[in-house]
Amino acid sequence: IQTRGRSCSSLAPGDTSCPGPHSQTRDCNTQPCTAQCPENMVFHSAEQCRQEGGPCPRLCLTHGPGIECSGFCAPGCTCPPGLFLHNASCLPRSQCPCQLHGQLYAPGAMARLDSCNNCTCVSGEMACTSEHCPVACGWSPWTPWSLCSRSCNVGIR
Q: Which interval of the chain is the signal sequence (predicted)?
């Protein structure tokens, strides 16, 4: 599996959202090393791959918001239905790790999203809270008075 990521540098102050995915994932080198696929894997032709929705649904790290799979169908080894590929192993969805901002998290692991929200890895997808963070708004203390604009005949401070 190949992955790549990118980070968002916002153009406007306070705006941290950029359109599009933050990670891309694809499978690679799907051809068997020997005449047979590794244990727990099955061989699929490119046509079988296309009929079953492409290579992406069978990878652990293609689930969740902000992740885009850019794989293509080629003859090779894949996980059987109901299992998902991660580190050369076919796992049930409940054992799939999660990816958040380029880091991997084990099932059940928690990550801090911001000062008010956390994410938990559940079946290959990060489940995040979405509480609004309170913003401390209000006036600052007054600055000192400026010098008077005139020395006589009513000036302005």
A: none
